[in-house]
Amino acid sequence: MDEPLFGSRENNYRLFYLSSCAAVSSLVILIAVTSYTAGTAAHIGVLMNDMSEVIGDMRIMLPDVEDSLKLLKTICTHENFTKTYGHLCD
């Protein structure tokens, strides 16, 4: 057990400290990436809640839009040619 594993005793200590620093730096990078991912996932959850609210509002407004388009089509095809409606009936 008195013989060094790799080269001299000083080289063994250098290798030990180098590998320890590499392991600690890898752990720091892993924690940074994990915290960034957790923050992004929290923002995605808020975005999904907002989108469900928007979709609910669209379901309320969509029948009104369909009725408005039917009314516009009726106005554009009416035989009263004395009124113009701009580019809506082109």
Please describe what this structure looks like.
The chain is an all-alpha fold and 90 residues long. It has one domain (9-89). It has one helix spanning 9-77. The chain has 1 helix and no strands.
Name the features.
single chain; 90 residues; mainly alpha; 0% strand; rod-shaped
Strand content: under 5%
- Give the ordered list of helices and strands: H
- Strand count: 0
User: Averaged pLDDT, please?
Assistant: 84
Helix vs. strand class: mainly alpha
Radius of gyration: 35 Å
Unreliable stretches covering 5 or more consecutive residues: none
Helix content: over 70%
What about the largest sheet? none
Number of helices: 1
Tell me the span between the first and last alpha carbons.
Answer: 93 Å
The oligomeric state is single chain
Count of discrete structural domains = 1
Write the layout of secondary structure elements.
Layout: H1 9-77
Q: What's this entry about, in short?
A:
The protein has 90 residues and is an all-alpha fold. It has 1 helix and no strands. It has one helix at 9-77.
